[in-house]
Amino acid sequence: MKSSSRQFGLAAVFFMLSFTGSAADSSDVNDLTTMLNEFLANAGVAEVHERFWADDLIYTSSRGTRTTKAEIMAGFAASENEPSEEDDAAGPVYTAEDIQIQVYGDTAVVAFKLVATPPDNSVVLTYFNTGTFLRRSGKWQVVAWQATAMPVLTG
């Protein structure tokens, strides 16, 4: 009898721990989903990039090039200094589909399909993106990002 009561006690502890972990992960998943959607909705805003990317970011583009946060931010600074007609043109609308998030304590992996819809709805581009987020001082930021272009389907 002693053994079965110990087993029940251990099962109850594991159940409570798994429930508590799920609640914490659920909150983190909601936070990360919100963060991703806000980033995509405001992708042309330098301050949004400043908050989203960690200083030690490694970003691998769909073209196979690597860049850093400093290089991304320098691109915003250069466009502010040299306005062009393109700056006034509306860019694509970015949205995320099929979002999958796995949280491992203060680390999270976020994978999703990025959809880039141009203002004229001409050619919609899609990418598979995967980001690794770290929570530092209570704040999530991306430390690694990988983008893979999906083929454009023509009908």
**Biggest sheet features:** 6 strands, mixed
Beta-strand proportion:
35-45%
Shape label: globular
CATH topology description: Nuclear Transport Factor 2, Chain: A
**Unreliable stretches covering 5 or more consecutive residues:** 3-23
How many structural domains?
1
* Straight-line N-to-C gap: 69 Å
Q: How large, in whole angstroms, is the Cα Rg?
A: 21 Å
Report the CATH C-level class: Alpha Beta
State the secondary-structure class: alpha+beta
Proportion in helices: 40-55%
Number of strand segments: 6
Q: Assign the CATH architecture.
A: Roll
Helical region count? 4
Task: State mean pLDDT (0 to 100 scale).
Answer: 83
N-to-C SSE series? HHEEHHEEEE
Give the spatial strand order of the biggest sheet. 2-1-6-5-4-3
Describe the model.
With 155 residues, this protein is α+β, with helices and mostly antiparallel strands. It has a single domain, classed as Nuclear Transport Factor 2, Chain: A (Roll), CATH 3.10.450.50. The protein is built from 4 helices and 6 strands; from the N terminus they run H-H-E-E-H-H-E-E-E-E. It has helices at 2-41, 46-52, 69-81, 85-88, and strands spanning 53-60, 66-67, 93-104, 107-117, 125-136, 139-149. The chain has a 6-stranded mixed β-sheet. A hairpin with a 7-residue loop joins strand 4 and strand 5. The model is unreliable at 3-23 (pLDDT under 50).
